[in-house]
Specification:
The structure holds two protein chains of two kinds. By secondary structure, chain A is α/β, with parallel strands linked by helices. Chain A contains nine helices and ten strands. Chain A has a single domain (about 15-250), classed as P-loop containing nucleotide triphosphate hydrolases (Rossmann fold, 3-Layer(aba) Sandwich). A six-stranded mixed β-sheet of chain A has the order 6-7-8-3-9-10, sandwiched between helices. In chain A, strands 2-1-4-5 form a four-stranded antiparallel β-sheet, covered by helices on one side. Chain A starts with 12 loop residues before the first strand and ends with a helix. Chain B is about 70% helix and about 5% strand. A two-stranded antiparallel sheet of chain B has the order 1-2. The radius of gyration of chain B is 25 Å and the shape is flat. The chains are: A alpha/beta, B mainly alpha. The interface between A and B is medium-sized, with 25 and 17 residues. The structure holds adenosine-5'-triphosphate and magnesium ion. Magnesium ion binds near residues 51, 52, 172 and 173 of chain A.
Chain lengths: ~250, ~300
């Protein structure tokens, strides 16, 4: 069967009734969401509600049990899925940065385009230096991750993902390990990205950011999406008591 | 009436009043992987000399009246030392080095199979590792010694296999299994976040392993690897039981040549002890210092 041609009018990421269990524990109980090209979507919810699990399903770090996730028309829940092709389109940034400690900032950024995409070194290097500039880390090219602050490491991690020129970026609580001072510098970087039209899916506890930058907010609890909507209505007109309770605690 | 006496460590106040959360600096994995080197490196070189001296004095007192004295025995030893070192100990070193080379090559392969994504390969590698890690070395040696042919014929050319080569194969088995564990342990000590980050960048499994994971844990493998080398070197006299003419076998033969006076035992075997210690002690010190250096860096 020919690959269905995806067009930007269709959702870039489309999840339908996603179920996922770890052993007896059902973590995702039918999650559905559509993310259009250029959207910035925030997923919020209490700890343990399955936010990380869900976002990791999108780039097939976690296989799903049933349902469907399509990324630009490519089905993720497919035993013959070419994971590497999928991951070239989907960038991911983690809470713990996970930079490669034995490589400098610049090498961290250059590695994947050179080794995975097999692009020529000088081309990749030019792009990497631009990305360093973009995340405001000029002068840190040759620093090792251990020599950088948490916020700087996280921005290198973002640049490393962007170097693959992904179509979607996934962020899993990328500011949760940072102190309040440095949270801002990372959020500004992500906001710039979103404003340039990058499709972003964020798991976050930063309500201010969600309100300001997101087009759409999803509230999850115990593996289901309880409520969702654009920030304007979401924060002021939440209907579900669980959402209200969560918002009252966090705001 | 009087203040209770403080028992340091139990009732005494802690040196700080505030609970201080020390950063957890555990060993990178499981049990102490360089315990043998630690023991050896903490021995004072004088300890060995003292033990040998004490042992040497004992027969001197007991048999002072005998006409063959301990002094004669030491004279006999000096005569044999060049032979024992160049023909005997040199073979021990040759055996330890070749065994380590073969054992490491096989062990790295086995260790990588232990983390294979294919359950069949992984389980088999695990079973092989455990089997050879937990078998007595001497039994493995005997099996290889008896199971191996005396010679092999390749394309009409018959090559005899010397006993020491067979001993090398026998000793390689437990070394392989232990290196396999070192490799597996080191790889698994790398945080899973590194695998995940690498996979999300579309690195293949092999690329992740060779470009991201192994470069990070290579250094961590060196101290335990050296520890195993010291253990192996100390174990090479086992092969004298199989007739390989290494230092212990040759010492026995030399003593026979000197008419088997009981006074010879201490100087000759004492010499073996000293020479093994002299060879392994610096390795142990080096191992400890490398381990310290690497654990600080990480
Ligand atoms: N690999 C795993 N094996 C078993 N259980 C897991 C695994 N990963 C997550 N879980 C469980 O799944 C549930 C959801 O975890 P998840 O990390 O998705 O929550 P979360 O919403 O991201 O929470 P937090 O806000 O604390 O990060 C938890 O109960 C967790 O213990
Ligand atoms: Mg999480």
């Amino acid at each position: 069967m020919a690959e269905s041609k995806w067009t930007p009018k269709e959702p870039m990421v489309s999840a339908k009734d996603v179920h996922k269990s770890f052993g007896d524990l059902e973590v995702l109980k039918g999650v559905s969401m559509d993310v259009m090209k250029g959207d910035c979507v925030c997923v919020i919810g209490p700890s343990g509600s399955g936010k990380s699990t869900y976002i990791r399903c999108i780039n097939a770090l976690n296989p799903i049990d049933s349902g469907s996730i399509e990324v630009e028309g490519q089905e993720v829940n497919d035993p013959h899925l070419d994971k590497l092709e999928l991951r070239k389109k989907v960038g991911m940034v983690f809470q713990q940065y996970n930079l490669f400690p034995h490589k400098t900032a610049l090498e961290n950024i250059m590695m994947a385009p050179m080794r995975v995409l097999k692009e020529p070194k000088d081309e990749v290097e030019t792009r990497a230096r631009e990305l360093i500039k973009k995340v405001r880390l000029e002068g840190k090219e040759d620093s090792f991750p251990g020599e950088l602050s948490g916020g700087q490491q996280q921005r290198v991690a973002i640049a490393r993902s962007l170097a693959m020129r992904p179509d979607v970026m996934l962020f899993d609580e990328v500011t949760a390990a940072l102190d309040p001072e440095t949270v801002k510098e990372v959020l500004v970087t992500i906001r710039d990205l979103a404003e340039e039209g990058m499709t972003c899916i964020l798991v976050t506890h930063e309500m201010g950011f969600a309100r300001e930058v997101a087009n759409h907010i999803y509230f999850t609890d115990r593996g289901v999406i309880v409520e969702h909507g654009p920030p304007k209505t979401f924060f002021t007109k939440a209907k579900d008591p669980r959402t209200k309770e969560f918002l009252s605690q966090i705001l | 009436m009087s203040a209770r006496t403080l028992i340091p460590g139990i009732t005494a106040r802690a040196t700080t009043d505030l609970p201080v959360l020390k950063p957890f600096k555990g060993k990178p994995y499981g049990h102490d992987e360089i315990g043998f080197s630690r023991f050896l490196a903490n021995l004072s070189p004088w300890a060995v000399v003292c033990v040998v001296m004490l042992l040497a004095l004992w027969p001197m007192a007991a048999m002072a009246q005998a006409k063959y004295t301990i002094g004669d025995a030491f004279d006999a030893l000096w005569k044999w030392v060049p032979f024992l070192v160049t023909k005997g100990f040199a073979l021990n070193i040759l055996i330890s080095v070749t065994t380590m080379a073969i054992g490491t090559a096989a062990g790295v392969l086995l260790g990588l199979w232990q983390i294979s994504p294919h359950p069949a390969i992984q389980k088999t590698a695990w079973a092989v590792t455990q089997a050879f890690r937990n078998s007595p070395w001497l039994v493995l040696l005997f099996i290889v010694m008896l199971a191996f042919p005396f010679e092999i014929t390749i394309a009409g050319v018959t090559i005899p296999i010397p006993d020491w080569m067979k001993a090398v194969f026998g000793l390689s088995l437990p070394i392989m299994a232990n290196i396999s564990e070192v490799v597996r342990g080191a790889i698994q000590s790398v945080p899973t976040g590194q695998w995940e980050a690498s996979e999300s960048l579309a690195f293949s499994r092999n690329q992740t392993l060779w470009r991201i994971i192994l470069p990070q844990c290579f250094k961590r493998m060196i101290p335990p690897w050296m520890n195993w080398y010291a253990i192996l070197t100390m174990a090479t006299p086992l092969v004298s039981l199989l007739g390989v003419e290494e230092i212990v076998t040759l010492s026995r033969q030399a003593m026979e040549g000197e008419n088997n006076h009981p006074e010879l035992l201490i100087p000759f075997y004492g010499f073996c002890l000293v020479i093994f210690f002299a060879y392994c002690y610096p390795i142990a010190r080096w191992t400890i210092s490398l381990e310290r250096k690497f654990s600080v860096k990480l």
